[in-house]
Structure formats: C-alpha cells, structure tokens
C-alpha cells in the first residue's frame, strides 16, 4: 500500500468515525540515521524576564536555568511577530507574514489557516526521513493503540515500514501536540500539514469556556452546565462553545480540563521521545505549550509564599514540564538531539499580575505616551523572547550568545542540520544559525524586521527595523495596558531611532540632527526599500480570514457548550 493511499485511508476512516483517536503507539526499527533529532518547545506569552538565567529577579525556572548552564542562552533572540498565529506560521515556514499570508490571529470560526501552498517544517523533515511531532510518532513498525471507549473497543493496528514509506524511501508518520492556531477546518488541520499525529488545542486556550476556568483578568465564568444557567460574561470571554481537545481529527474532550493539560502534554512528549528513539529514525518533536498564556491553571499550593502567586506557580509548572522532556532526551537520545526552547511573543500586559516580565526592555518612550509596550507591539518587550539551545557535545555549554537571531531561523537551521533542502521558488527571512549554535560564530542577522502585530498600523506591515544595534520606528502605538489604556497610533516620517546597546529600555530616541542619526537613517531607508521590493517580487501567499460559525469545533451540537468526553 502506498504511503499516500494509507494516509488518505486512515484520515478518511477517522472522519467517518470508524477509527478511534490515537492515544498511544509503539515503534520498532533497527536502522539509525546520523541525522539529529530536533525538539522545539514553544512557550506562549512568556516574557524575556521570565527566565531566571536572564533576569535574577525571576525564581522558579530551575530546569530551564540548568539547561542554560549546560547549553547556549540567546539574549538577543526575537519572535517573528508579537502575537500568536503569525509567530507560529513564521516558525513553521521561515517566512514573515507578508510572505506566508498569516498576519494576524485566526478565530474559532475561521474557515482558513496557514495557506496550503506554504510548506511547513514538518513536511520538509518528513520527506527527509524524520518522524515529526507536536506530538507525534513514527515507524518502522507502527502500532496505533486505539483506546477502549463506549463506542470502540481497544485494538492495535500494525503497519509495516514498507506501508509507511514512499517509493523513494522517505517516511510518512508525523505527529504534533499542543497549541496549533494555524487553522482547524478541513485541510488546514495539522494532520494535513505534515503532522500524522496531533494532540492538542487548535487555538489559544482562552478561546472557549471550561469547567476549570483557571486565572484570568478579568475572570471568565465556567461553562454552563445546562440551559437556563447562562451567566453574564465579561467582554472577550467565550461562553457558548467549550474549549476542545483534539486527538488527530477527533475531539476527545470538550471542555478541556486545564488543570491536567500540562501532565497530558508531558506524557505525550516523553512517550514520543522514548518510542521514536527506539525506532532508530531521526525525529522532530514540536511542543506548543499553553503556558504562560491565560487562563493560568489552578496548581497545588506551594511552600514558598512568593510562589503562591498564580503566575509564579504556573511558571514553575511549565519549567517542570520542560524538565521532564529534557530528562527523557538525556536518558535516551542525549548525544544526537538538539533541544530548542523559545517563546512566541512577549507578555500580555493587560492581564496585570497574570502577565510576565519584560526584564529591562520597558519600552519607556511608548509607556510615557500611553499603553503597553509588550505583546502586540513592536517594542522590545513585545518580541524579544527567552531562547535556549541544548545539545551536549555539539552546542557548547554555559555560553551566552549575543547574536541577533529570530524564531524565523529555526526553519532553515533545522533543515540544514537534517541535510534537507529549502522549499523551492520562494524567499526566506530566516537564516541558518548552525555556526552560532556550535560556537563558531557570534554573527546572526544584520537586519531584522518586526511586523505590526495589532497595536498600530496594518497587520503584518514592516515599519519597525532592527539594524545592528539600532532600531527604527516609522510607526508607534501602545497595546492595551493593565489600567485599560492604549497608546495612540503615531506615524513618523522621520523614524524614531534608538541605540539599543545604550538604551535597552527604548526611553530616548536619537536626536534627528545628531551625526549618529544621520549616519543610520539612509541605511534604514535602504534596507526597508530592499525588503519591500523583495516581497513584491516573491511567491507570496494569502491567508483566508473569512469566518463561518458552522466550522466552530463542536463534538456534540445537542449539548450545551458542545459537551462531550471520550478520554
């Protein structure tokens, strides 16, 4: 049976209800490829200052701090956008939103997602012989363990390596677990984007009600239990549809129990690493964490009064989850696995004490104008994120890198390490950071663009430019702050330019008449014109942002808030 036919058959059976959700799998195989395993862990709304190794005031990230001491810490690492969907699309494509089409977030009613003509990292590595996951599993003999439920007895379907490879010998199975937020309807679902196994939430976990709503600001109510018990929701709360948990194409729990979500993600990740390592095949594991996005889960009481705060408790839970994944890597695949940890954007300041720390990147010029300078903005607090790389024997230990790097670089770096080729007929914004990873260079980007992400300007527009140590703003604006204020959108024909080496807090722009400003301005003008010309001549995509309530994930339309549970 050809691999494509097998995939269509399995997916078709799942759509038809004949194949229950895949909960577990075991893999056997003897051939070990020299290609490295790649583990990517993406935190959500985590501030640069939320990593203790970055910011001494932060406690509770012992596992991440240990990883930093045993690997490389990047202090000038940036998200590709300052909000969820665009940042994740760039991670998986190596392209900015103006190229890949994803410039702002998708909704629960979104018909589209990451454009289908964009090639994901999972698809590239899959064809290079990788098992890919968020969270996922792969061959040589793949046993898909189907759980017992009221409608489906436990059974194991065994598929041989011949069934799971194409005529060219490339492997099929791939899996994904965690937050997706790049489209859930039809062909935009992760099962059709290079991930043969998917376990997670299709968008942010505040985009649906739960029975355990956790901490949010303002607080949102739990899902209604029956008709007639609706409560008046706060603005931006979802009450009509419960938050779904997917396993492949099936919703297995709606609403999700947020208190147990971290444990489930850890179990899936650890099982995947164990079994994929045993197969002898290289693997890609992509874990999209729910932490540190609100609502924060209710966690057991902690001994330290300081850590009783919900944010600190959630940070410790996330750190523990990452520690479990790293421990499993160390146990079964330490010598040949690159583990890359980073974040999708900065903290969501409007959530007040439930938001993280930007460290020293206060964006003071903007906060004096009004609003927040964190998530949704192009100030450093919005896009400078924690980043660590760990690979004993390859990535030097206890090294701090000042190279200017981005989430965009994960795509080309992983592909280069895998010995694969970049997708043809398109341009990329990321670079291969292998030389930096291996300690042979401190040179990253000379130029990096920070797309508009909601606080000001057209979504995805390139009006903020990093050029070496300088940063230029042609537009500024503040996102919603804790006090509810926002900063006005301001256009700057002569851009504001900051010297980040001398003014990390972005407090005082260079005087427009100063020699430094006059020397930098023509360079900024030139690189901006160059990238806009390049995008105009590129093979770009357009995302479908139309909405239709009928595509909202719902496992039981007959139940209030779409209630169901099969696991």
Automatic annotation (TrEMBL):
Which co-factors does it depend on?
Answer: Ca(2+)
- Where does the record place the Sulfatase N-terminal domain? 36-136, 176-420
Q: Does the keyword Metal-binding apply?
A: yes
Organism superkingdom: Eukaryota
Please report the name of this protein according to its UniProt entry.
Arylsulfatase G isoform X1
Keywords, in A-Z order? Calcium, Hydrolase, Metal-binding, Signal
Checking PANTHER family in the record gives: ARYLSULFATASE FAMILY MEMBER (PTHR42693), ARYLSULFATASE G (PTHR42693:SF42)
- Xref: InterPro entries: Alkaline_phosphatase_core_sf, Sulfatase, Sulfatase_CS, Sulfatase_N
Q: Which family, according to the similarity comment?
A: Belongs to the sulfatase family.
Q: Name one Pfam family in it.
A: Sulfatase_C
Tell me the gene name: Arsg
């Amino acid at each position: 049976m050809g691999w494509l036919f097998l995939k269509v058959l399995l997916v078709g059976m799942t759509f038809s209800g004949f194949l229950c959700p895949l909960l577990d799998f075991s893999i056997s195989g003897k051939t070990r490829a020299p290609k490295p395993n790649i583990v990517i862990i993406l935190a959500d709304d985590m501030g640069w200052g939320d990593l203790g190794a970055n910011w001494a005031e932060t406690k509770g990230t012992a596992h991440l701090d240990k990883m930093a001491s045993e690997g490389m810490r990047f202090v000038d690492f940036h998200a590709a956008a300052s909000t969820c969907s665009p940042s994740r699309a760039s991670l998986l494509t190596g392209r900015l939103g103006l190229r890949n089409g994803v410039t702002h977030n998708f909704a629960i009613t979104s018909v589209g997602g990451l454009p289908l003509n964009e090639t994901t990292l999972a698809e590239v590595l899959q064809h290079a012989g990788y098992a890919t996951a968020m969270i996922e599993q792969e061959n040589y003999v793949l046993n898909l363990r189907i759980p017992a439920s009221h409608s489906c007895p436990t059974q194991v379907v065994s598929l041989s390596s011949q069934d799971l490879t194409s005529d060219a010998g490339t492997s099929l199975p791939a899996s994904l677990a965690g937050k997706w937020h790049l489209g859930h309807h039809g062909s935009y679902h992760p099962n059709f984007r290079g991930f043969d196994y998917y376990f997670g939430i299709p968008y942010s976990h505040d985009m649906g009600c739960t029975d355990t709503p956790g901490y949010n600001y303002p607080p949102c109510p739990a899902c209604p239990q029956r008709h007639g018990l609706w409560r008046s929701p706060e603005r931006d709360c979802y009450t009509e549809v419960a938050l779904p948990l997917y396993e492949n194409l099936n919703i297995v729990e709606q609403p999700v129990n947020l208190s147990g979500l971290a444990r489930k993600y850890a179990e899936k990740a650890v099982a995947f690493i164990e079994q994929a390592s045993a197969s002898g095949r290289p693997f890609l594991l992509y874990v999209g964490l729910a932490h540190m996005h609100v609502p924060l889960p209710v966690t057991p009481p902690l001994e330290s009064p300081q850590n009783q705060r919900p944010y600190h408790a959630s940070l410790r839970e996330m750190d523990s989850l990452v520690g479990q994944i790293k421990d499993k890597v160390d146990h079964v695949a330490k010598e040949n696995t690159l583990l890359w940890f980073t974040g999708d954007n900065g903290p969501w300041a409007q959530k007040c004490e439930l938001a993280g720390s930007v460290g020293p990147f206060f964006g003071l010029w903007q906060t004096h104008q009004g609003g927040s300078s964190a998530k949704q903005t192009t100030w450093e607090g919005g896009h400078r994120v924690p980043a660590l790389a760990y690979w004993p024997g390859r990535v030097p230990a206890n090294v701090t890198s000042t190279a200017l790097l981005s989430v965009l670089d994960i795509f080309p770096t992983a592909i280069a390490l895998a010995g694969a080729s970049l997708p043809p007929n398109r341009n990329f914004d990321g670079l291969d950071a292998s030389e930096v990873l291996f300690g042979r260079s401190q040179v990253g980007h000379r130029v990096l663009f920070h797309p508009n992400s909601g606080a000001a300007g057209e979504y995805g527009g390139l009006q903020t430019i990093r050029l070496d140590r300088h940063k230029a703003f042609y537009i500024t604006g503040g996102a919603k702050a804790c006090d509810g204020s926002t900063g006005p959108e301001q256009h700057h024909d002569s851009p504001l330019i900051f010297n980040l080496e001398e003014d990390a807090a972005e407090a005082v722009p260079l005087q427009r008449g100063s020699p430094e400003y006059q020397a930098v301005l023509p360079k900024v003008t030139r690189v901006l014109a160059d990238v806009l010309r390049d995008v105009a001549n590129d093979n770009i995509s357009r995302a479908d942002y139309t909405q239709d309530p009928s595509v909202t994930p719902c496992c039981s339309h007959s139940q209030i808030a779409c209630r169901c549970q099969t696991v």
